[in-house]
Amino acid sequence: MTAPSPLLHFEDFHPGQTFVFGHYAVSREEIVEFAGEFDPQPHHLDDDAGKRSLLGGLAASGWHVCAMAMRMVVDGLIVKAANRGGVGADECRWMKPVRPGDILRVEVEVLETRASTSRSDIGFVHVACRIFNQREQVALLAMTPILARRRA
Amino acid sequence: MTAPSPLLHFEDFHPGQTFVFGHYAVSREEIVEFAGEFDPQPHHLDDDAGKRSLLGGLAASGWHVCAMAMRMVVDGLIVKAANRGGVGADECRWMKPVRPGDILRVEVEVLETRASTSRSDIGFVHVACRIFNQREQVALLAMTPILARRRA
């Protein structure tokens, strides 16, 4: 008899479950570099422009924050799961500016699980992913379905 | 009398309006570099792992595709608009894998405009942002509100 896979499968996720992990130190260099490549708006590149914007100071591109979150989710959860990829996000909200010196972490809350009707080997795990900063503020909220393999 | 700003303001957006722009050439190096930093899952890093995955071959991280889209939107639309930033995305779907050699472009369709009830100087322009590849497939769909300044 083969031992069951230690990886988290669809059947291992349950509504209400919460996973807490991650430590992401945000640097000015990274904010400016990402913005220069993907989101070259002045408030992501320059302190004074940031101060004059709704952000109230230099802050990371929202898509950069999503990417930082993804890195923490890969390292802290996906490596432990029989993950089959993602399909996108149902909702994504940049709640607070992410600034140089911020330290981010993740809370993933399972909201609902649903077996795929078209593929018997996978299921959808709907999660709320909250990225907190060191001031205990939610900087990013992403509601997103994750595809997880089902146990044979 | 001062001439009105040539920038697109809230009042210049109307449901049904479509903006078409952008040309983004996707390279293998960029896919692997972004994935190495933000989404180090094997199917974004390695051809063989990509082939074994649901993606059917090496493909860019979905968040990378969002970032590529943002770059095109900044260069093709935001530079022409009295933009006040974004708040996130209402929905985001990675419809087709984005692969090395793909050429992407954008279509932004205005769905609805709504003045802010809390701030008289801004309004929300709700758009559907579709990223097409050179095979005329929609690779990314993002439904997102944009904050635009109102004319004085």
How is this structure best described in words?
Two copies of one chain form a homodimer. The two termini of chain A are 14 Å apart. Chain A is an alpha+beta fold and 152 residues long. The first copy, chain A, has one domain (10-26, 60-149): Roll (Thiol Ester Dehydrase, Chain A). The radius of gyration of chain A is 18 Å and the shape is elongated. In chain A, 21% of the residues lie in helices and 36% in strands. The model of chain A has no long low-confidence stretch (mean pLDDT 94). In chain A, β5 (103-115) and β6 (122-132) form a beta hairpin. The first copy, chain A, contains three helices and seven strands. In chain A, strands 1, 2, 4, 5, 6 and 7 form a six-stranded antiparallel beta sheet that branches. The interface between A and B is medium-sized, with 35 and 35 residues. β3 of chain A pairs antiparallel with β4 (91-94) of chain B, so a sheet runs across the interface.
Oligomer: homodimer
Compute the number of structural domains of chain A.
Answer: 1
Reported for the largest beta sheet of chain A, the result is: 6 strands, antiparallel
Average pLDDT over all residues of chain A: 94
Largest interface: A-B, 35 and 35 residues
